[in-house]
Amino acid sequence: MQILRDSKSIEEGAGSCFEPELRKLLAAKVKSLNEYEGYELSEMVNFIVFEECDTVANLDAALGFSVMANRFDGCRYGEPGFSPSWEAIEEHINWFEMVYVLSDDGFGVVVFVSKRADPELLKMLQQYSHQ
């Protein structure tokens, strides 16, 4: 798992050794966020790249909450009444993209999840990206 927290690592990530689709997705996010003058990227967003060898427990630790549970009521995926706590989810060819807004000032985290990652996580993402 790679975590891009500072402006330099975010900008480098968009032109890095990531596979082409992910580089394109990162570059598009960077371009849209660069329109906010007076802010460093790191003041607005962090990116997490979750790959096939990563564990959900490591993702949870990086986020500070469980991705498989609602951040506000604790209801877990698969339980009656579960609803995910991300603001947006989008499916791409090889990646899922989850967006979490973590503070009132709009700071957020964008998580890119490889479609070769943890099967239970992928099942949840697939289900909710099509709703």
Can you tell me about this structure?
It contains five helices and five strands, in the order βαααβαβββα. By secondary structure, the chain is α+β, with helices and mostly antiparallel strands. It has one domain. It has a five-stranded mixed beta sheet. Strand 4 (95-101) and strand 5 form a beta hairpin. Helix 1 (7-14) crosses helix 2 (20-33). The chain is globular.
Structure in a nutshell:
This protein has 131 residues and is of the alpha+beta class. Helix content is 34%, strand content 21%.
Furnish the topology, listing elements before pairings.
Elements: E1 2-4, H1 7-14, H2 20-33, H3 41-44, E2 45-50, H4 56-63, E3 88-91, E4 95-101, E5 108-114, H5 119-129
Parallel strand pairs: 2-5
Antiparallel strand pairs: 1-2, 3-4, 4-5
Helix pairs in contact: 1-2
Question: Could you describe the largest sheet, including whether it forms a barrel?
Answer: 5 strands, mixed
State the order of secondary-structure elements, H for helix, E for strand: EHHHEHEEEH
**pLDDT below 50 for ≥5 consecutive residues: which ranges?**
none
Radius of gyration: 14 Å
Structural class: alpha+beta
The whole-number mean of residue pLDDT values reads: 90
Distance between the termini: 27 Å
Number of domains: 1
What's the helical proportion of residues? 25-40%
Features:
5 strands; alpha+beta; 131 residues; 21% strand
